[in-house]
Amino acid sequence: MAKTMQWYLDKYGESHQNRINKLIHWVCVPAIMFSLFGMIYAIPFPLAERGLLMNWAAVLMLFAFIYYLRLSIPMFLGFIMIGGAMLLGIDAIYNAIGQNSGNLALIMLAIFALAWVAQFIGHKIEGAKPSFLEDVQFLLIGPAWLLHFIYRKVGIHY
């Protein structure tokens, strides 16, 4: 049986029932995603001068988009917008700090570390292990789990 987007969302939701843990996830999952792409953006890109679409984060994001497309076209479309916004934000920070890759990496590493600490605190409160410890795919399902709440609220079927 092929696993559907709904199966992944339901499975992810099993270890995310506590109100405080959910709140932490609303802040930290996007922060982790943003900072991870930011750290990857900081890696020199060999083909051209780094730019909005000419960086390793855009390349990695393309693979994430393909993953979402396999599971759900509406999720794929949502993540194109979210990913684009994240790349714009990362690029803006990179330019604001004088196009210094090292400083960008340090800023993103700090965000990444703080967000993960908070995530583990949330799971301690929840009393459940993070889902990605069971299956690494759940690292990509976490953002989709948040997006599915927005989709349900506005009536978009995913």
Quick take:
This protein is mainly α.
Describe the structure.
With 158 residues, this protein is mainly α. It is built from six helices and no strands. It has one domain. The mean pLDDT is 95. The protein is globular, with a radius of gyration of 16 Å. 73% of the residues lie in helices and 0% in strands. Helix 2 runs antiparallel to helix 5.
Give me some keywords for this one.
158 residues, mainly alpha, globular
Mean pLDDT: 95
Number of strands: 0
Low-confidence stretches: none
Report the sheet-strand fraction. Answer: under 5%
Note the total helix count: 6
What's the number of domains? 1
The largest pleated sheet is described as: none
Please give the radius of gyration in angstroms. 16 Å
Give the helices and strands as they follow along the chain.
Answer: HHHHHH
Intertermini distance: 19 Å
Helix/sheet category: mainly alpha
Shape: globular
Helix content: over 70%
Task: Produce the secondary structure layout.
Elements: H1 5-14, H2 19-41, H3 56-71, H4 73-96, H5 101-126, H6 138-154
